[in-house]
Amino acid sequence: MTLPWKLLILLSIIYNCLDSASYHGPRWRMEPADLFIPVDSIEEEATLTCDAKGTPPPQYRWSLNGTLINLGLDRRRRLSGGNLIIGNLNRYQDVGMYQCMAYNTVGAILSRRASLQFAYLDHFKVHTRSAVSVREGQGVVLLCGTPTSSGDLTYAWVFNEYPYFVQQDNRRFVSQQTGNLYIAKVEPSDVGNYTCVVTNSITKGKVQSSPTSLILRTDGKIQHMNGQQLLSQVNHSQLKMFHI
User: Fold this and answer.
1) Do residues 32 and 62 share a domain?
2) Same structural domain for residues 134 and 239?
3) Among 108, 131, 155, 179, which is most buried by a count of CB atoms within 10 Å?
């Protein structure tokens, strides 16, 4: 039996609708995340993740600082699925904001922007720091002067020499934003040399500043002490310090 032509057209339309309904544009499974790479590890590879689902399966493109990466001409960068793998890392050429695009015949989507940065910590500039004088009972701020760096930093201060670190209490506070040491109501036992120690939490590198001398003023004059007098002033049982 031959089907009427109108029925054939209707069946064709229904088939096409059902067939097209099985296709859909890309949807994210995983978007790229920020990366911090230690400068000492630049011989290793960096991987920026990108994964989407869709029908037909998505294809991928990457951009760096808004410019499309031509993977066909780039020997250091390649795709693995949607992931961008960068070899022979270069801290000057590879740093920046990366973005992934997933696309198929139905549509395209852009990922969040992810930064690739290189973590490092330079040394302090070598120079003698001026002594800081303060009257007993007053407050004082000792400046760390953080060297050039990239990556999360932590700060501590050494009192006179290792392994005695200043312990924070109700008079002493170390800012983890600036590295500066704040001392309230200075006492004679606070007199001595202070050294700022900076640690990069990513590279694990550590550097220290030149010492800053804290000197006590008496009646408007600086009280000078030799080493023996300084030791007699410092009562280690009263200093709130810890050993690491």
Assistant:
1) yes
2) yes
3) 179
Beta strands (DSSP E) in 6-55 are: 24-30, 35-38, 46-48, 51-55
Q: Tens digit of pLDDT for each residue in 181-219?
A: 999 999 999 999 999 999 999 889 999 999 999 999 876
pLDDT > 90 fraction of the chain, expressed in percent and rounded? 65
> For the chain, how many structural domains are there in total?
2
Same domain, 128 and 238: yes
219: domain CATH number?
A: 2.60.40.10
pLDDT value at residue 43: 67
Looking at the predicted structure, is the pLDDT value of residue 132 above 70? yes
Helix (H) or strand (E) holding 63: strand 59-64
Q: How far is CA 149 from CA 9, 95, 217, 240, in A?
A: 70, 15, 36, 31
Distance CA 46, CA 43 (A): 10
CA atoms 63, 65, 66, 70: torsion sign: negative
Average pLDDT, the chain: 84
Going from the C-alpha of 181 to that of each of 158, 177, 178, the distances in angstroms are: 11, 11, 9
Quick one: average pLDDT of 12-21? 50
pTM here is 0.64
As to burial, measured by CB atoms within 10 angstroms (0-12 exposed, 13-18 middle, 19+ buried), residue 156 is: buried
For β-strands 172-174 and 181-183, DSSP reports them as antiparallel
